[in-house]
């Protein structure tokens, strides 16, 4: 048994010891302890160093609002997490923890020199200190700021844990399982609603866990709690603990982060570490309670200084006394009870110091009965002790005058500056707050979502008040959902309602300018900093916040915001509501990236679409490239080949004999109906009326702005049925665009669109031997040049599979595209590959496809066009049906901007040296000797080494390019400037002789 | 994440099933050739960009696939109504009155 | 990157005490599109009344028809009945314009059964499953992927998935299958 553990007390299991380490030393705690409670039980309060001044710090709270006791936790390789709250992390055998922000050790930290230099680090010191000289920015200031910035140390290894996510729909979500939340859940569940009750703590109960003395409905609080939870479970309430509501979004969507394994010694491998719940609730009940405020005075941050309510929690929930000799400084009744509980447990209460001249008489009487000295109408003006508090200095305040000091020795100091409702989630909804003068705090005002606020969250103190408000608000939610509820009430004995006053920094007889009176512990912001910010011209609370960083730490000002506001308002000479609060934003508490990522890592990172032939490519050592969501075979290297060599070989063999290519990713849309041809006429630039069934045509699709959106070969299968192909990346976009026109502009057309991209596997055969390979496999169709000329389409059977056969070429060679139902894609590929061996068939990938098409000057939409290219710019004016009455984009082609001189036009480029290959994206200038910045007239869109042309070739968009054939342009590169000549865009077989084989 | 009522499915569904489609009630002119350059420019590019109730299009892309219209307050992100494509603009004053009645604040 | 999953082999993909995920054998699938006035004639030709409400299903023998949009249905049938469907529709096309397009190979179907089948759906589908009655189906989304979700029983679902998106969804379902068993 450790020195500060109270035998038999609390909810920890006294017969289940747990050992863990902190900074290398082994400590004993109990099952149910947090790191903080276990260390305090061992007499350890010093748990970290502060961020800016490296001041020694211990836990000031017992929950997730803790700003000081941030530790690193480790569970083997890769499982290190910085900035974990020691007050939240549960212990298990073997847990390794470490303090932060210290070097070389927690007890002796060199960084603490900052504390001596604190006058340099006042509000806005970044802005003042790092202004000049300008040359210091890169070399001195930035490295300094970067070295000093950041809390804890980032993990360096990949996170081996898994994370999960789930959607949840519920009628009523109750946030917070304290008395108000429990009661609200009960009311909603009894009405037969789907109810979800969540709490960030390891067990439900909230305040009840810290107040076992209360008797609810005649039962001791913990007995009542146990039976209440059983009742909720019986009613089907989903109770989730270790689950934080991190954000409250539109229309009652709440993000919940559930921690599943951090408290376990040996989690199951299949259990994710955390799970993000995206909850949609018809009604939300916020029962998050209130947070205790510290008092602001010099030295209020020493280890051993703690919120009184937290000390009460450590005692009653964890069975831990925070010290042997304790002084209480308070402005609120609640701290008195903490003192009484500790006194009963054996801690000597040196004194209760109340800032109020006349505290609650009943409490004073109880203190007297316990022999506790009371100082009423006093202020605290300082503390002593380096690594742990040794004494507190107090002074009588008489009519505003601070009288002579006296010093009280202690090993712990409990403070309480009153309570403030936890309204973070409510604020996420843009619900407004109003200042309540009586309780000196903000309370919820205008509600914007379907939510209720219950209990201390709306300023009701005491268990009975919270409980009965919970029943009432639960009933209100039930009523809002159209059901009836009885409003139940319960009476609570030994309840501890109370009241208090609120302060700015406490009055002092010492130099206030030298006081280290902390408001924001985590960011080391003092009362002096806030006043300085106001003196230096900050008027808006948002400016004060940013100038001082008050409330900007990872605790988001849970403890500091109201104290900060009180001080800023005082300095501004305004009332609190005129100054207002800063904005709370999600997440409520720091949340791991893993929780947000969920399943989306490794295999689940994102969708990778693969064709039916992909597995063959993988087995045959293809190198892949991503194309939109697809992965496509890029090239097929043979032993010893790099990409360049493989692509040259693939190009050569395809043009020489036969290549095969997996074109399954091409988008495909089936257009069917009596108005199919009319629809085609309206959508595409080309005329379709005279295209006979069995024939295909290159189609060009524009937006109504006249710019190229997509292209592809389109076959007419019958009068009323077209088979459109789109670019791989454009498939979904094109279908969406077509549906848009069809549904909203031309709903009268009798035509329907169906995506068939994935219905078909598509194999392209190209090369002089394409027909020789294919013909023996085709049944029901003569594919001779006479019977099935270039740009034909037919339904037939290929190798026994039903097929749609296109005669089409994207390479300039004799070409066919065989479409078979997807499940047969790989079988057909293997059949053709085997039979093609006698023609030295060469499987090729997307890179070779790109080279072969560029040699023919065929554009790739999105590479040679960029969303500002018209058909005329691209040299595809031939595809525009000039006699059509209308098509999408037609009108825009006559807009002045689109017919103006000097538009960028697609041209060919050949480098003058015949060997330099241009960089795609390289900028083009007319005069290389002009001063920088040069006038850029265009850029290279496509560039390859061309085996067929025997030299590098390129396509480029150049201002007025079509009128500049034969002219010289320059491409400045980092190491040299390359000369090139503008040419046409066709580099190979301009007569198309090879198509006619 | 918003909840959106699809007027075709008649269900109120998660925003994840929908895609945004720009401002509503901008019909493509019957005879584009009759339009002046300025008129065509306005049709293509000029939008109201309102602060407040905005008539806009959505598509139930992962659902019934239909484009439909909505009135959404761009300040509060609240939908005032949704209605089928081709239906007339609803009366904004009536919508705002209805919305005020539904306001959860008390 | 998405793991490779062989879509040519029907059978159990993942199984735990919580849930079983299985790939179903191929069936004939058609997308049927038609305007409201034509629905009567099509129903007659097919011998099944086309359901008029989005999400509702019509069934006769082994044939199922699901209404996915105001003018859109998917017909699911045994492969040997595909010819009957195409013939029936072709016969009335001239007087009853519509679009019948085969999509048998566009999609694969995964069946999810077991005590936690609904929970498994919730790892990727944002819909409230309590609003999906048994016997109906909805086109919706699963982890960003369009899917048709059929509810065949309280804890019995089918997911129709486009072929190339299926491995991503299946891999997630496999992960969820193990996760749910551990709860």
Automatic annotation (TrEMBL), chain A:
<dbReference type="InterPro" id="IPR029043">
    <property type="entry name" value="GcvT/YgfZ_C"/>
</dbReference>
<dbReference type="Pfam" id="PF01571">
    <property type="entry name" value="GCV_T"/>
</dbReference>
<dbReference type="InterPro" id="IPR041854">
    <property type="entry name" value="BFD-like_2Fe2S-bd_dom_sf"/>
</dbReference>
<dbReference type="Pfam" id="PF17806">
    <property type="entry name" value="SO_alpha_A3"/>
</dbReference>
<feature type="domain" description="FAD/NAD(P)-binding">
    <location>
        <begin position="171"/>
        <end position="437"/>
    </location>
</feature>
<dbReference type="InterPro" id="IPR028896">
    <property type="entry name" value="GcvT/YgfZ/DmdA"/>
</dbReference>
<dbReference type="InterPro" id="IPR041117">
    <property type="entry name" value="SoxA_A3"/>
</dbReference>
<dbReference type="Pfam" id="PF08669">
    <property type="entry name" value="GCV_T_C"/>
</dbReference>
<dbReference type="InterPro" id="IPR023753">
    <property type="entry name" value="FAD/NAD-binding_dom"/>
</dbReference>
<keyword id="KW-0560">Oxidoreductase</keyword>
<dbReference type="InterPro" id="IPR006222">
    <property type="entry name" value="GCVT_N"/>
</dbReference>
<feature type="domain" description="Aminomethyltransferase C-terminal">
    <location>
        <begin position="904"/>
        <end position="989"/>
    </location>
</feature>
<protein>
    <submittedName>
        <fullName>Sarcosine oxidase subunit alpha</fullName>
    </submittedName>
</protein>
<dbReference type="InterPro" id="IPR036188">
    <property type="entry name" value="FAD/NAD-bd_sf"/>
</dbReference>
<feature type="domain" description="SoxA A3">
    <location>
        <begin position="515"/>
        <end position="596"/>
    </location>
</feature>
Automatic annotation (TrEMBL), chain B:
<dbReference type="InterPro" id="IPR006279">
    <property type="entry name" value="SoxD"/>
</dbReference>
<dbReference type="GO" id="GO:0008115">
    <property type="term" value="F:sarcosine oxidase activity"/>
</dbReference>
<dbReference type="Pfam" id="PF04267">
    <property type="entry name" value="SoxD"/>
</dbReference>
<dbReference type="InterPro" id="IPR038561">
    <property type="entry name" value="SoxD_sf"/>
</dbReference>
<protein>
    <submittedName>
        <fullName>Sarcosine oxidase subunit delta</fullName>
    </submittedName>
</protein>
<dbReference type="GO" id="GO:0046653">
    <property type="term" value="P:tetrahydrofolate metabolic process"/>
</dbReference>
TrEMBL record, chain C:
<dbReference type="Pfam" id="PF04268">
    <property type="entry name" value="SoxG"/>
</dbReference>
<dbReference type="InterPro" id="IPR007375">
    <property type="entry name" value="SoxG"/>
</dbReference>
<protein>
    <submittedName>
        <fullName>Sarcosine oxidase subunit gamma</fullName>
    </submittedName>
</protein>
<dbReference type="InterPro" id="IPR027266">
    <property type="entry name" value="TrmE/GcvT-like"/>
</dbReference>
